[in-house]
Amino acid sequence: MPKFVKGVSGNPAGRKPGTRNRATVWIEQLMTGDIEAVVARVVKAAKAGDMVAAKLLLDRVAPVRKRWRR
Q1: Domain assignment of residue 7, yes or no
Q2: 42 within domain boundaries
Q3: Sign of torsion, CA 53 35 15 8?
Q4: In the chain, how many domains are there?
Q5: Backbone angles phi, psi at 52, to 5 degrees
Q6: In degrees, to the nearest 5, what angle opens at C-alpha 22 toward C-alphas 16 and 26?
Q7: What are 29-67's pLDDT values in tens digits?
Q8: Is 19 inside a domain boundary?
Q9: pTM recorded for the entire structure
Q10: Domain enclosing residue 53, as ranges
């Protein structure tokens, strides 16, 4: 008898599929109206020479390409 049966949850009373983390939902609600202002402020800081802000922007806009092996 297999130890784990495919498609059967080990915790049937657990989270339903697609349920989102409370912290993630909370953060998204906080930033809903302010996201444009936050992005504008980070861009302004990067243009003023803030390297941390510049790295943050570049990591999101043009992430480092991952090399793959054959």
Answers
A1: no
A2: yes
A3: negative
A4: 1
A5: -65, -45
A6: 140
A7: 887 877 888 889 999 999 999 999 999 999 988 888 888
A8: no
A9: 0.51
A10: 34-63
